[in-house]
Automatic annotation (TrEMBL):
SMART domains: HAMP, HATPase_c, HisKA. This is histidine kinase. Keywords: Kinase, Membrane, Phosphoprotein, Transferase, Transmembrane, Transmembrane helix, Two-component regulatory system. It comes from Microbispora catharanthi. Gene3D superfamilies: 1.10.287.130, 6.10.340.10, Histidine kinase-like ATPase, C-terminal domain (3.30.565.10).
């Protein structure tokens, strides 16, 4: 028979509960410290005031005692109890409210003639009094040196009786701590309410529906900025997932045609023995090469996005001249400025220039101009052909993967539509840009990269 261990309540995981418990503990501690200090201060103030008055009354009565004559006591409204007691504890004279029993048994000495005490006889209320010793000179004159004592006192105030003061201050401290705790609970709940709404909405978002957005409170505080950042992240995520789905669909479509042709040729060779196998394989090779080309470009595209490239100083002018010299077909005229240097991957930058030149030659009528120059803090590579150009509505679309315009399909039927997309991805990876700008005639491709300084 197994014995289950005792289960303890875990510390609350809620921020609201933790903050409230912390504030409650601090509130109790602060209230206790304030309460103790306030209690001691009140007691000290009240007792100091009472003893100051009782000492004054006792001192004034002793001062009125003359040779052979003791005047009657002069109690006041604040000090109604006044007595003169001899050394044997007998009351010599007393005020009307002091009674015939000594108020205290305290006997001050010659060195310390005044003592402030609180007497609490059994079954009677406490009395706060000052015990004063009559000076020895007056004692010789009045009683031949016998010590006499004056007691001047008053009933202890109700606030100081028992623990009433501590109870009242403690109750006030408890109420104050409870008020702090309740206020903290409400304020924390109000602060965390938008966060709970964001959490609930985030739990509703899944891969099938990324269009939902978290509620965004007004203002410019941390929670509002958090909601805005979450919505911006969701927007980027939705765009990325949408592009990924579109990319997957386009890839599937582009690979479907050559794969279907390859399979058809192979199945035909298997079904019909009279067909020469070598001829069937030869007819299938273009489809396989087409698939290999698409896959190689896709791998390059993915590698560029996921793997950082090595960088080195590259002279764009020299690179442009070298790539222009390698081209064949339509004439390419290069114009470069000296010392146009950037930091990047030489092979990838060369592939951009090569792709742009080949694309320009494909659409040019008779001439392609390429230039590399400085423009402020940027390096510009401009490739301009004298062909029909690109319409404004297509200038961004041609950089999308697998996008091919009608003219491109006619001039290059075997193209994959990934060349320009790969060029732009390389430019972005080098913190630059690639776009098509206005020109009087033909297409004007402009590559911008940050210049290497220092």
């Amino acid at each position: 028979m197994s014995i289950r261990p005792a289960t303890f309540l875990p510390f609350p995981h809620s921020i609201q509960a933790r903050v409230t418990l912390t504030v409650a503990a601090v509130s109790v501690l602060v209230a206790a410290v304030i309460g103790v200090g306030l209690c001691l201060l009140i007691r000290h103030r009240v007792e100091a005031e009472i003893y100051r008055e009782t000492r004054r009354v006792a001192t004034e009565w002793i001062g009125l005692m003359e040779r052979g004559q003791v005047p009657p006591p002069a109690p006041t409204a604040r000090v109604p109890l006044v007595q003169l007691v001899d050394s044997r504890g007998r009351v010599v004279t007393a005020g009307p409210m002091a009674g015939d029993r000594p108020l205290s048994t305290v006997r001050p000495t010659e060195e310390n003639r005044f003592l402030d005490v609180t007497e609490c006889p059994e079954s009677e209320r406490c009395v706060m009094l000052t015990a004063a010793r009559v000076p020895s000179l007056q004692s010789w004159e009045l009683w031949r040196g016998e010590p006499h004592f004056v007691y001047a006192g008053t009933d202890q105030p109700p606030a100081l009786r028992g623990r009433r003061l501590e109870f009242l201050i403690g109750a006030g401290g408890v109420l104050l701590a409870a008020l702090w705790t309740w206020t903290t609970w409400r304020a924390t709940g109000r602060i965390l309410r938008p966060i709970n709404a964001i959490r609930q909405r985030m739990s509703e978002i899944n891969a099938n529906d990324l269009s939902l957005r978290v509620p965004q409170p007004s203002g410019r505080d941390e929670i509002a900025r958090l909601a805005r950042a979450a919505n911006q992240t969701l927007s980027r995520l939705e765009s990325a997932v949408t592009r990924q789905r579109e990319f997957a669909a386009v890839v599937s479509h582009e690979l479907k045609s050559p794969l279907t042709g390859l399979r058809t040729g192979l199945e035909e060779a298997l079904l019909y023995p009279e067909i020469d196998a070598r001829q069937a394989i030869a007819r299938s090779l273009p489809a396989a090469e087409r698939m290999q080309q698409i896959i190689d470009e896709l791998l390059a595209f993915a590698r560029l996005r996921n793997t950082p490239c090595s960088s080195e100083p590259v002279d764009l002018g020299a690179l442009v001249r070298a790539e222009a010299a390698r081209t064949t077909g339509v004439q390419v005229r290069a114009r470069t400025e000296p010392d146009v240097r950037v930091l990047g991957n030489r092979v990838q930058l060369a592939s951009i220039v090569t792709n742009l030149l080949v694309n320009a030659q494909r659409h040019a009528s008779g001439l392609v101009d390429v230039s590399a120059e400085r423009a402020g803090a940027q390096a510009l590579v401009v490739v301009l052909d004298d062909g029909d150009g690109v319409g404004k509505e297509d200038r961004e679309r041609i950089f999308e993967p697998f996008t091919r315009l009608e003219a491109g399909r006619r001039l290059d039927p075997d193209g994959s539509g990934l060349g320009l997309a790969l060029c732009r991805a390389i430019a972005v990876a080098h913190e630059g840009s690639l776009c098509v700008e206005d020109s009087p005639r033909g297409a004007r491709f402009v590559l911008r990269l940050p210049l290497l300084t220092g």
